[in-house]
Structure formats: C-alpha cells, structure tokens
Backbone:
C-alpha cells in the first residue's frame, strides 16, 4: 500500500460525498418537470451519479484493502444495475423511472456496505437482489392483467393471520424478537411477507366500501394482526402495520375522525403494552438514557451513536471504521454503519432520497383514479418510509429502537425481496394509471366526436 | 352532479394524501437536523467514552500528541522504547504529576481533558500520505497549556516533603500557571507503582488535592464573614470595636483564639489582620442567616466550580437550624464548613480582579505537528462574584494582613502582596492544624493569585506564607 492508495482513498471520500449530493439534488429536481418525457435528461444525470458513487466506493475499497476480487464484483454489480434500469425502461416505458433509480441506488449502497462488513453476506445479498429484480419485472404485468386481486381482500387477511398465528406457535426465536421460518435450509421472515398481504387486504376492502360496518370489521382484522405481532415481540412490525392501516383508512374514508380516534386508541394501547411487557420497558429505558447502562441495555444504541458521530461529515472511508462493534450491524444498524464510513452527509442524503421516492409514490397514488390502486400505492409508500424512519431514527436515538431493517439496504433476503416486490407493484399501478389516462383520452375523443357529429347534424338540419 | 362528486372526492384525496406526505417530510427534516446537530456537537464527548472503539482505531492510526508548557517545554510526549513500542514520557517526572495526569490505567488530568485533541491528527493530507508511505503513524495534535515550568518547579520545591497543594494563576486571564499536589507520583513509573498506589489508603497519591481535597478553611473563611459583615453594615464596619482576651463566650459555647492568644483592643481591620477568632465569632452571631447563606451560595459554595477536571464541591451552610456554637464555628471557618483549595483560589482571584472571576483554564491552544493552530481556548467566561466596592474593601483588608498581621513575612518586598492566612484545626482533640495562605500581588494592580495549603504543618503565617513568598519572588524576579 503506497502513497497513491492513500490519496485515492482520501479523495474518494469527497467524491462520494459530492456524488450523492448531486444525485439527491436531481432526485428532487424531477418534481419541477411534469411528465416522464421531459425528465429524461435528469434521469440521465442520475444514472451517471449513481455509477460514479459506486465506482468511487469501490476505488476506496480496493485502495484500502488492496484486494482485486472487488474489481470483478464492481463489474458484475454495475452490469446488473445497468440492466435493471434499461430493462424497466424498455419493457415499461410508461413506468416511473425515479422510483426505479432510487431503488437501485439503495440496493447499490446496501450491497456495498454489507460486502464491507462481510464479503459472503454481500455476495448472498447481491444474488437475492438480482433474483428479486427478475421476479419484479413480471409483477407490473401481473397486476395489470389480474384485476381479480382487487376483490380478494378478506382472503389476504385470512392468509396473513394464519401465517402469523402459525408463527406464534411454531416460529423459532432468534435475537429475542426476530422470528423466522426455516424451510429446506432457507430461512425466511413471514412478517415481511405478511406486510404485502396486509396492504393488499386493507386496500382491497376499503376501496370497495367505506361504510361504518366495513370499517369496523376491517379495523378488527387489522388490530388482530397488530396484536399478534406484539405478542411475537416484533414491535417494529406492529408499529408499521398500525401506521400503514391508519394512513390507508384516512385516504379511503377521507374522515379525520377515524384517524384521530385510531391514534388515540393506539396511544392508549401502547401505554398498556408498556406496562405489561418488560422488554418494551427495557427498550424505552435504553432510549431515555443509554449511557446509564452501557454494559447491557444501552450497548447497541451507544455503539450506534459512537459510529454515527465518529464518522464526521465525510466518514472514515470504507474499511476505515469499526462497524462490526455494533451487534447485528448489517441488519438493524446498517444506517449507523453507513454514517460511520461514508459520513453524515451521505446518510442524510440517503434519507432525503427515501423521501423523494415517497413523495413520488404519493404523487402517483394521487393521480390514479382506481381506488384500489391508489390505496395500494399509498400503503406501500407508507410502509417503506415509515420503516426507514423507524430504523434511521432508532439508530440515531431520535426515537426508541424497534429493530427493523432499512428496506433495500439492510441484509436479509426476505426483506429485500419484499421491498423490491412492493416497488414493482407501485410501478404496476403506474402502468394502470397510464392506461387510465389513455382510456380517458379515448373517452374524451369519443365525446368530442359525438359532439361534432351532433353539431354537424344540427347544422345539416338547419340547412 | 356526478362530476361534482368526483372533484369533491379528488379534493379529499389531495388533502389526506398531502397531509400524510407533509407529516413524513416534517418528521424526516426533524430527524436529519437532529442527527447532524447531535452527532457533531457531542462528537468529542462520545469519543472520550471508554466504550467507544474509535479510540483504539485512532490509537492504531495516530501517535498521541505532546503536551507543552506555556514556556515551550515538553511536559508529556510519546516516544518509542527499546522494543519499538510506544510509551508516554513525562520529562518533569513528579513535578506536573497531577495536573498533567496520565493516559494509561485510565486517564486523568490534562491527558484526560485534552484526550480528544491528542489522539486526533490534523496534519495536511500530503504529510499523512508521506507517513502512510513510510508506514509511520500520523503525529497527533499537540496541546499548549498555560502552565509555567519555573513557577511549577518553585511551588513543587517549596512544598517540599509536606502533604498539601499549591495553585497559582493569572487573575486577569484565568490562566493556571502552576498546580501542585502532594504526595505525588511519577507518571513514568505508573506500571510499576500502580498496584501499590491504588491500595495505599494513607497517602492517596493519585488524588489531586488542589481540586479534590476537602479541607476546613479555617481563618481564610473570615474573608467571607467579613464580606457578609460589610454587606450588612456598610461603612459602619469602621465603628466596630472588640476587646479580645483570647476567648469569646456566647450562650454556653466558647471560641478560643489560635493558641489562646489575646489580641487586646481591636477594630474591624485589625481583627481581620490578626485573625482574631473571638472577634469574628462575636461578629458572626450578629449576622443575618439568610443573607449570609445567599452570600455563600453566591460565592459558589455547594455548587459546581467552573473547572472541567474532577473536583469536589465545597460546603458552607447557614440557616436557622444552626446553633449558636455552629454559627460561631462557621464565622471562623471551622466546624462542618469545608472548602477545596481551588475554590478558595477562585474567590481570591475574583477579589483581586475587581470582583469578577475569570473562569480558570489550563488549556491554551491545540496545534498540529506542523504548527497550525486548530483550536484556541480563549473564551474566558466571566462571572461576577461581588461588587467592585466589596472587592476593594476585601483587598484593603488583605493588604493589612501583610502590613500588620499574620502574613508579615511578605512585608517589605519589591512587590506589595495581600492575602489571608489560616490555621485550620481538623481534629477536635489536638492542636494540629493545616496551614493556609491565599493571596495575590501586586496589591495595587493584581496580576497573580496564589493559594497554598500545607497539611498538618501548623500556622499559616509560619508555614504557608513562606511558600507564597518564594512563588511571588520567582514571578516578580
């Protein structure tokens, strides 16, 4: 390792910081222009900065470790991301490209940081992500063709509740609150999959009817999900389900009373849960004063805070920090690891990119005329952003720690698969929307033609 | 009709979706600001936490910086031993032991306070690259202190084999010029002596008596009693007279003058100069207790001192619950009243500086190995402890102590000193006492303040004042 390597890895720090700032800038500039066609050049720049960030990160890794094996990995990953971006553009020209770009950016950062923490986990993550992307390519077509999904609400609810109940009885407990199934050597987390079912169920039921009876039944079923999750000690998921349901309910009914009373009830329930469950008390105590008990309760959160503050603005550089000092860093504390090695600027930009994705999803949701599609988009959007909020806020001690993953970035096959599938569904709804627009255009044309005809007829009559 | 319904529905969607979007945008904006502010403003504190593994990373990357005195002498530096391992060297050995402290076996003193600066390296990227190429560590940033080796050595030698502490500072800037505590230790031999030092309960060498030693203030406390008397009586203090026959009895308690000496007819100034216990006990019983208590808490009794290193709080309480005996004991600084040498020093500094205390500091600036200043500690927060008039009143009293009273050993020098002695009895049964002196010079235009305590030595005038004289001599030579 010579002087050149040192310069490379130092300069790369600032290049990475600069690149993500530009990328973030473009992901908000998108909103200034209406219509995907006019945004073309912005997407071009975005793609360029995405690859530049990736390239600079790999340069840093190679300069720091001197290992050539990363060169091959860089080449393959670049290829896969490039293919994802261009395939989506080719197959679904009407899809929203910002969402795809941001998704790829998050995946890229995730694979990078996981590879840095543990090489083989990084490879595994990369393979699962690639597999998920291929699956996801089919999803927009599925949703476009299978309108029957809209009417299967209660089936999804039943499936979700059965899965969770089975989990409650048979699931293996790992890491205290994380619960998974092992089938044929592959472990997967049903709570992640049930998230999909849950959004489908609520979107479907509430898009059909919003009378009091339906809302009451739907709320009882949703509450059943949440209660089982609390019993499973998966507080993070319980919170996500709750918030997602409240948001869908608000948009479906347009009635703020439901929303307010729902949150009041939720607040009451959390106080009761706090009194009942000692593990919740431990979490809250660790949040209020982690420094009091670093040895046991506060260990994770204090290590996470050390990592975030230790990185400074531009980070210590990949392989320059000590992220493995945080237990479960690649799952629950990936945000802290990113802040430590890539800097606070980088991690804050990452959060801003998540917000840009979220706002774009909301805009799409607003434009969709189909009620089911709108609620589905909204549900997935809130699931995504709220999960980001829980994990980043938890890592930085902004809110108590709940132990959820950073979607698309954290290590975990099920989590990545489900997140990618969620975005694919959103893309699918974009297609439905463009179809709606096309239909509306045809209707308008027809109407105009009819009018013309009528006018002509009148003219002819008067003649 | 249908169309109207649709626009209404669309508006509802807009409001609810817009609401959800805004909530999350606000939440994220708050979170991002929180992350930035929290992690940047707490960086140093978190880096010093012993659970933080970044310290080990920095240790591997940088060699710990040096500590310098104000007169550019090296007080601590990192060198390589015969095996090529890094060790910390303290060229002045025991002389700066407590104030500089150590960085192995935990941290103390300046080594602890400046740890963050010493373990970081802010040399230019080119120098770093060169060091990297040569497989050397980056040199850590160096700290310049306000300590003066001449005064420190003088104080160290003057205290000789006694237990006790000496503090010297510049009253105008708050700069600590010297701080000595004995018994001491050699930070170079910490590994060998550690077990012995931590198990020896008689000597407690590791304790910095200057900031952590809790002593009865004895007659030095009469500064506070006099201040309170002045606050209550104003210029009428000039009419005060007392006839001392060596003891004062009030109710069924009696206060004796030091060694039963009788001072005869004394006015206020002479009571102070001669340190007449009987006269001050006589004053104490007339004082308003609430008012006295306010004066004491206004002068930092019972509160944290403006000093970053480990220190103890002083205690002096005056309330209705005190018996006549208690209040008389309080008036002469005996009984339950305790004070740290640092606290007494800060009170003296404030008196010397027209009533305004410039908060003390020992760190001056952080400089990279290449000489670039990256941080200066010139903030010098000030706080007013008393009015200018009160400060002048006390300065005059303290001057009389040198001219006519117990500190006459300082009389007739090229400088005019002022101060107050104390002989604090710490056991009821014997006549053993700690020797105190706290004072400043020059009287006309004060520059430095000196506070000395010599444990179990005898009277302040006899044992503490000569040490002050050596320090003043050195400073003004």
Residues:
């Amino acid at each position: 390792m010579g002087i050149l390597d040192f310069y490379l890895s130092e300069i790369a720090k600032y290049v990475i910081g600069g690149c993500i700032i530009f990328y973030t800038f473009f992901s908000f500039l998108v909103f200034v222009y209406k219509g995907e066609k006019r945004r073309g050049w912005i997407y071009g720049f975005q793609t360029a900065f995405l690859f530049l960030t990736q390239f600079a990160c790999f340069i840093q890794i190679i300069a720091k470790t001197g290992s050539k094996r990363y060169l091959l990995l860089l080449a393959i990953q670049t290829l896969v991301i490039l293919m994802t971006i261009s395939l989506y553009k080719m197959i679904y020209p009407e899809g929203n490209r910002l969402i795809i770009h941001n998704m790829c950016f998050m995946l890229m950062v995730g694979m990078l940081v996981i590879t840095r923490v543990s090489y083989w986990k990084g490879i595994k993550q990369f393979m699962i992500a690639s597999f998920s992307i291929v699956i996801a390519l089919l999803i927009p077509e599925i949703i476009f063709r299978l309108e029957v999904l809209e009417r299967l609400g209660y089936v999804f609810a039943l499936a979700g509740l059965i899965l969770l109940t089975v989990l409650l009885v048979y699931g293996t407990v790992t890491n205290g609150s994380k619960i998974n199934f092992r089938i044929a050597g592959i472990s997967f987390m049903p709570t992640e999959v049930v998230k999909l079912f849950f959004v489908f169920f609520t979107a479907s039921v509430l898009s059909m009817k919003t009378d009091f009876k339906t809302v009451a039944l739907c709320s009882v079923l949703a509450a059943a999900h949440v209660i089982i999750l609390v019993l499973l000690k998966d507080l993070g998921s319980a919170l996500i389900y709750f918030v997602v349901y409240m948001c869908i309910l608000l948009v479906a009914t347009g009635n703020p009373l439901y929303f307010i009373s729902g949150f009041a009830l939720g607040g009451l329930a959390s106080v009761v849960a706090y009194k009942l469950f000692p593990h919740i008390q431990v979490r809250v105590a660790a949040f209020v004063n982690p420094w009091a008990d670093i040895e046991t309760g506060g260990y994770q959160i204090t290590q996470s805070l050390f990592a975030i503050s230790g990185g400074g603005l531009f980070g210590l550089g990949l392989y320059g920090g000590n992220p493995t000092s945080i237990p479960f860093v690649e799952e629950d504390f990936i945000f802290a690891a990113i802040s430590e090695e890539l800097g606070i600027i980088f991690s804050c930009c990452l959060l801003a990119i998540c917000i840009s994705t979220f706002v774009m999803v909301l805009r799409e949701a607003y434009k969709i005329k189909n009620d089911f599609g709108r609620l589905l988009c909204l549900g997935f959007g809130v699931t995504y952003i709220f999960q980001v909020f829980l994990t980043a806020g938890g890592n930085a001690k902004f809110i108590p720690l709940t132990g959820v993953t950073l979607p698309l970035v954290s290590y975990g096959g099920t989590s990545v698969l489900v997140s990618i599938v969620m975005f694919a569904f959103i893309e699918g709804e974009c297609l439905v929307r463009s179809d709606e627009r096309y239909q509306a255009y045809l209707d308008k044309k027809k109407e105009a033609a009819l009018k013309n005809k009528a006018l002509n007829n009148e003219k002819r009559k008067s003649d | 009709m249908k169309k109207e319904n649709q626009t209404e529905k669309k508006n509802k969607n807009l409001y609810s979706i817009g609401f959800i979007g805004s909530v999350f945008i606000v939440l994220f904006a708050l979170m991002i600001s929180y992350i930035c502010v929290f992690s940047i403003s707490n960086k140093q504190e978190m880096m010093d936490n012993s659970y933080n593994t970044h310290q080990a990373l920095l240790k591997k990357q940088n060699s710990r910086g040096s500590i310098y005195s104000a007169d550019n002498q090296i007080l601590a530096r990192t060198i390589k031993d015969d095996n090529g391992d890094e060790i910390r060297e303290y060229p002045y050995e025991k002389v700066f032991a407590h104030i500089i402290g150590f960085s192995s076996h935990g941290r103390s003193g300046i080594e602890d306070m400046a740890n963050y600066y010493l373990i970081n390296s802010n040399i230019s990227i080119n120098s770093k690259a060169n060091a990297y190429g040569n497989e050397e560590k980056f040199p850590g940033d160096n700290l310049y202190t306000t300590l003066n080796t001449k005064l420190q050595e003088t104080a160290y030698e003057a205290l000789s084999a006694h237990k006790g502490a000496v503090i010297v500072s510049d009253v105008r800037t708050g700069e600590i010029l010297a701080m000595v505590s004995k018994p001491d230790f050699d930070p170079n031999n910490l590994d060998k002596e550690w077990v012995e030092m931590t198990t020896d309960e008689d000597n407690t060498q590791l304790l910095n008596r200057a900031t952590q030693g809790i002593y009865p203030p004895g007659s030095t406390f009469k500064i506070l009693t006099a201040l309170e008397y002045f606050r209550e009586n104003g210029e009428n203090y000039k009419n005060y007279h007392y006839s001392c026959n060596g003891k004062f009895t009030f109710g069924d308690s009696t206060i004796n003058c030091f060694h039963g000496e009788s001072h005869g007819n004394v006015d206020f100034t002479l009571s102070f100069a001669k340190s007449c216990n009987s006269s001050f006990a006589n004053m104490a019983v007339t004082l308003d207790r609430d008012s006295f208590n306010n004066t004491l808490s206004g002068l930092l009794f019972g509160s944290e001192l403006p000093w970053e290193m480990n220190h103890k709080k002083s205690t002096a309480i005056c309330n209705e619950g005190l018996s006549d005996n208690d209040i008389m004991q309080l008036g002469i600084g005996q009984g339950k009243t305790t004070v740290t040498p640092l606290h007494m020093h800060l009170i003296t500094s404030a008196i010397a500086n027209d009533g305004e205390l410039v908060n003390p500091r020992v760190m001056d600036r952080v400089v990279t190995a290449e000489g670039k200043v990256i941080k200066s500690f010139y903030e010098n927060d000030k706080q007013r402890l008393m009015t200018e008039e009160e400060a002048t009143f006390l300065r005059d009293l303290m001057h009389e102590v040198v001219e006519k009273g117990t500190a006459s050993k300082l009389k007739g020098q090229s400088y005019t000193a002022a101060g107050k002695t104390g002989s604090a009895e710490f056991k009821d049964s014997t006549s053993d006492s700690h020797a105190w002196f706290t004072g400043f010079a020059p009287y006309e235009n004060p520059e430095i303040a000196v506070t000395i305590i010599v444990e179990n030595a005898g009277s302040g005038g006899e044992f503490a004042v000569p040490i002050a004289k050596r320090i003043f001599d050195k400073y003004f030579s």
